[in-house]
Amino acid sequence: MVDTSFADLSLAALYDGLNTWGPSDDFYLRLVRQADAVLDVGCGTGQLLSRARAEGHTGRLVGLDPAAAMLVQARQGRPDVEWVYGDTQVHQWDAEFDLAVMTGHAFQVLVGDEEILQCLSAVRRALRPGGRFVFETRNPAARAWERWTPDRVREVTAPDGTLVRVRHEVHGGGLRDGRVRFSETFESDRWPAPRVSHTVLRFLDTEDLDRCLTTAGLTVLERYGDWDGGPLTPTAPEIITVATPAA
């Protein structure tokens, strides 16, 4: 479960600049504030848990991520949070958390059925009775990948002042077998050559998503289509799911 785009230190340092705090973070932060023990699966640079701790959260906060470079950023920000290197195949917990989250569309990096079921089952085991697992995946009906075109260039400034340009390009004609393959190119006038990573994301509709959740022993409590808590409609950008261990 690694997004190779940010697997090296110099690119990981760009992540927060490219993914600034927004409505999705506010949504998850409200949930974290209400929970005593929180597991953030695929925590990245740890923005969510770091903000919660900075605001005075006194409970247990654990961030799990398979990209060592991302955790370097997280540890620099908040050493008073438990930052764990690895994934749910390596690290497992037994009824230790009130809340587990997967933010930033991290769930979509799980591309195979077995990988998805393993992660969901591990999250279920990690939750206490009545605990909640909250995550989002892009609604495939909204076809977000059609906007990931090379002409859309984003700029971000690295910690050393280097200006970096970032662009995406989808390969293979878009959605195929529920997956989208794309490249992400980082380039700067100060670098000898661009840096290119390749990523595959899984797009699940609600039927397939619910099948996976049920198989893993999770029951859907709530579902939203946007970060304001709006209903899930055919054109809603997100499938935001709140699930709990089945009785």
How far apart are the first and last residues' alpha carbons, in Å? 28 Å
Q: Tell me the name of the CATH class of the largest domain.
A: Alpha Beta
Please give the count of helices.
Answer: 7
Order of helices and strands: HHHEHEHEEHEEEEEHEE
Helix-strand makeup class:
alpha/beta
Radius of gyration: 18 Å
Which keywords apply here?
247 residues, alpha/beta, Rossmann fold, seven-stranded mixed β-sheet, four-stranded antiparallel β-sheet, 7 helices, 25% helix, 34% strand
Characterise the protein shown here.
The protein has 247 residues and is an alpha/beta fold. The protein folds into two domains: 4-138 and 204-245, 3-Layer(aba) Sandwich (Rossmann fold); 141-202. Helices cover 25% and strands 34% of the residues. The chain has helices at 9-12, 15-18, 23-33, 47-54, 68-77, 113-126, 206-215, and strands at 37-41, 60-65, 82-85, 97-102, 127-138, 154-157, 163-176, 179-187, 195-202, 218-224, 238-245. Strands 3-2-1-4-5-11-10 form a seven-stranded mixed sheet, sandwiched between helices. It has a four-stranded antiparallel sheet with strand order 6-7-8-9, with no helix packed on it. β1 (37-41), α4 and β2 (60-65) form a beta-alpha-beta unit. The longest helix has 14 residues, at 113-126. It is globular. The mean pLDDT is 94.
Write the layout of secondary structure elements.
Blueprint: H1 9-12, H2 15-18, H3 23-33, E1 37-41, H4 47-54, E2 60-65, H5 68-77, E3 82-85, E4 97-102, H6 113-126, E5 127-138, E6 154-157, E7 163-176, E8 179-187, E9 195-202, H7 206-215, E10 218-224, E11 238-245
Parallel strand pairs: 1-2, 1-4, 2-3, 4-5
Antiparallel strand pairs: 5-11, 6-7, 7-8, 8-9, 10-11
